[in-house]
Structure formats: C-alpha cells, structure tokens
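_Backbone structure tokens_
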Amino acid sequence: ENMLARRHVDSMQALWVAEAGVAQAVRDLPTLHNPGLTDTLGTPANKFNYTVTSIPHPVVPSRIDPITGETIEIYQIDASGSVANTDITRNIRVFATLTPPTPGGFTSAIEVKNLLKIKGSAVISGPPYTDDENFNDPSTYAKENSDFTFQEKFDIAPEEVKAYAQSQGTYFEDPSSPLPNYANGVYWVKITDSNDQLKIPKTGWSGNNIVLIVEGNCDMEGGDFDGVLWVMGKLTISGNPDINGAVLSELETEITPITGNPDIYYDPSVISGAIALLEPLGTRAIVAWQEQ
C-alpha cells in the first residue's frame, strides 16, 4: 500500500512536471527556431521536455479571426515529465493558439491627444498620395484631440512591451549622442530627466522597420523613419525628416508643433511590418488538452 501510494504521488508529480513543460512552451511561442527544450524542475531535479510543431496540421488547420481577419497561429505541443529516481513518465499533447497583435489601431499618419500645431510646409498624407492635406479634416491623415491608449492601439500593455525590449537588449536610458541607427526591432528609450528629450539629429540617422517607444520627450529634427513612433511626452518634429508609418503622441497638455518641411506618410504596409515584430507578445490560449 505504501508503494502504491508513493507511485501515485510520483505519477501526479510527473504529470505536473509535464504541465510545466507545456507552460514553458506556451510562454516561449513562437519557437520555430528552437522547437524543443529539456529542463528540470524542483529538488531533486525532476525532468521535463517539450517539442513544438507549427500548424498547418492535418487535424487542426489554422484559423482566421472572424473580427480582425488575422490568422491565428496554432501549435501542437508535446510535453513529457518524469520524476527523479523513478521510472514514471507522463506525456501530454496540447494545441495552443497564438494571436499576434494587429495593426488595425493605427489609422493616421500622426495622431495626438492634444492640439496639433503645424508650421512651415509639412506634408501629411497617405495612400493615395496627395500633396495638400488639411489636418483639420477628419478624412485626411492627421488627427488631433484624439482619445486613445497604448493598450487599445497595440493590444498589449506598455509594461509588457518594455519588458520585451529589455529582454532583447533594445531598452536604453538617456542614449548618448550621436544616436545609433535602429533597425528591425522593438526599441524602448527612457528619458529620465523630464526637462531633457530624445534628440533625433538632422542627418545621418535612420530607423528601419522598428517600433520606437519614447518614455519622455522627443525632438525629431531629421532622419529616415519607417515604422511606428510612440511618444509618451512632448513631441516636436522639425527640419526635414522622412517618416513612413504612423506617429502618436500621448501628452495631453502641451502643443505638439511640426515645423520645417517634414514628410509624414501613412503607410499601412510599413505599419504591419513593424507590428509583426511584436508577435512574441501575442495572446496565447490552450484550446485542446490530451494525455498520451
């Protein structure tokens, strides 16, 4: 009876160790570049391992979100758990979905929570391209006095995006001058002094296929920018920057001036490419579970 009770406890422990493998796999989706992992849990070290298979799968095809039209990725996860110093193993198969963030929340070339004060000959446009845009006209590509939140636009909390940038080595506090070029990543820049700002220089800087979050003020005097720029403080755009994608400023009390001759072009394809960088932060769910 003692032996049976002990084996029952060990069996349940092996099941939960296998569940730990599932949890690890779901957390790490998408893991196509590293589809398998072996690790240990507890003391003594109980072992689990998992493998991840991407769908399309002959049993469960990929799904289309009926509201957004986005593809919901489905993954098959096989996990096993074993208890140290025993011959007991439990095996689990689950199907999990990963719904990536969608770019549908970005509908303007520039959108601000406050007044949008334009000086000079700024061009704010989008497809089809037109040279003369009236930013007060809601049918065009500039929107002021808008009511939006980070969570609504990205479908992700800002703390998650910040933690992701930290894990990727793309989080910077008070970056030195000259600002290095940014490319193919999610960048979070924090300006610790409220009287200071992120300075994007007149020449020599580019941000290619990026999501750039500025926790503080930002002064953009030039550069070539492709992606999504989100400024939590005061935004100033001057000089001749070339911006493709979307720009948002969430400061509610200051005026956001645009001076000089900047070109701000609403480009849905550029926005989609930038938001795709946030796929690892998509919504995960287990939709089927079975012990093998």
The helical segments are 2-28, 150-154, 158-168, 268-275.
